[in-house]
Design brief:
Elements: H1 3-23, H2 28-35, H3 39-55, H4 57-67, H5 69-95, H6 101-135, H7 141-171
Helix pairs in contact: 1-6, 1-7, 3-6, 4-5, 4-6, 5-6, 6-7
Length: 179
Amino acid sequence: MSDRRTMPVLLLAVLSAFTAQQVLTPVLAPLARAIGLSEVALGSIITVAAIVFAGTALAWGRAVDRFGRRAVLLTGMGLGLAGMAGFAVVAQLAVQRAIGPETAFVLMLATRSVLFGAGIGAVPVAAIAFVAATTAGRDDDGAARTSGIGRIGAVQGLSLVLGPAIGGLLAAAGLLGPV
């Protein structure tokens, strides 16, 4: 697949992953209250996800070198999907009182924080590795690299707008709508 055809797909992957993360923003606090989680527990879920995201970056970088950009991107997207799906199941069970707040907290840490955090961490690493690899050796490699990395940053920024907006709209269907 050519670079011109790959870049839009790659940008869509980055946009999708980071928008999925932000869709939950409008409902996390009300969801935590409905489940019976404390503010500290909710903050821990978010903080651990950020630590896992940042902490896995070097491992994802090594994985790109060993297995390739596409494999890392697909693995990351798969882990992210599994983490969000798991989080949705846990949230549903907790809202229905099928599991208690303590169990929900542990399972949310495992799904949203660890699985999703690790998975989404692969996405920008693979995207930036793609840009670096496809711009090396070109006459305009500096400008092309800057442009490509700038596009990745732009779609991450766009996800900060789209995610909460979509989450707010989905929340009209109920607390679990965005989940």
